[in-house]
């Protein structure tokens, strides 16, 4: 549990630094386009979306100075290896941390991507678009980790994509139950 709290603490630190910059940028863009009060929920959603990206990148791309990597560096191209390693850690060692970090962490980190994209943009309402965006974002992160002293793992791709898909599923059910609520987050005028 301490490790998860540490991750969240690191994420909040970077979000706290970036958030004022994101607010200034969005206010500038909003002023340039002309303020429309109907778009306030959309703009708040954009702030949350970019904060999620900052938090995500802070844990996956931004190097941590002086930190020794917890895992060996390299590239894992063996699909589903994380399943076997996590199973062994739980069954033989009673060690649940790989499950929380590798499985739940990778899935939960990408759920906001699958949820927020269709919530904010009408063009992203078809499930393939946010799921594909989650896959592409995950691939970008894995490629960016290769030159760093971090491991890059093919299993992260499918876990992150699963997270984006589950985020979309949450959006889908909320849209069905509360269509007016989800419509309020869409931009008033989209090209």
Description:
This protein is mainly alpha-helical. 72% of the residues lie in helices and 3% in strands. The chain has helices at residues 2-33, 40-60, 81-93, 97-120, 128-145, 154-177, 179-183, and strands spanning 74-76, 151-153. Strands 1-2 form a two-stranded parallel sheet. Helix 3 (81-93) packs across helix 4 (97-120) and helix 5 runs antiparallel to helix 6 (154-177). The N and C termini lie far apart (45 Å).
Number of strands: 2
Mean pLDDT: 88
Q: What is the CA-based Rg, rounded? A: 18 Å
Instruction: Give the fraction of residues assigned to helices.
Output: over 70%
SSE string: HHEHHHEHH
Secondary-structure map:
Elements: H1 2-33, H2 40-60, E1 74-76, H3 81-93, H4 97-120, H5 128-145, E2 151-153, H6 154-177, H7 179-183
Parallel strand pairs: 1-2
Keywords:
191 residues; mainly alpha; two-stranded parallel ribbon; 2 strands; 3% strand
Brief sketch in words of this structure:
This protein has helices at 2-33, 40-60, 81-93, 97-120, 128-145, 154-177, 179-183, and strands spanning 74-76, 151-153. It is mostly helical. Helix 2 runs antiparallel to helix 4 (97-120) and helix 4 (97-120) packs across helix 6.
């Amino acid at each position: 549990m301490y490790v998860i709290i540490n991750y969240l603490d690191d994420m909040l630190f970077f979000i706290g630094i970036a958030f004022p910059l994101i607010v200034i940028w969005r206010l500038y863009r909003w002023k340039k386009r002309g303020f429309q009060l109907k778009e306030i929920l959309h703009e708040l959603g954009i702030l949350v979306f970019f904060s999620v990206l900052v938090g995500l990148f802070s844990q996956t791309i931004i190097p941590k100075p002086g930190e020794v990597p917890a895992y060996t560096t390299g590239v894992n191209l063996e699909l589903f290896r994380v399943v076997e390693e996590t199973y062994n850690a739980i069954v033989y060692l009673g060690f649940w941390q790989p499950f929380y970090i590798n499985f739940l962490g990778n899935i939960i980190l990408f759920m906001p991507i699958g949820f927020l994209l269709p919530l904010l943009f009408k063009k992203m309402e078809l499930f393939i678009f946010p799921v594909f965006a989650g896959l592409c974002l995950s691939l970008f992160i894995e490629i960016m980790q290769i030159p760093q002293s971090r491991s890059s793992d093919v299993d992260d791709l499918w876990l992150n994509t699963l997270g984006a898909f589950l985020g979309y599923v949450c959006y889908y059910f909320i849209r069905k139950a509360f269509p007016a609520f989800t419509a309020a987050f869409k931009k008033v005028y989209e090209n």
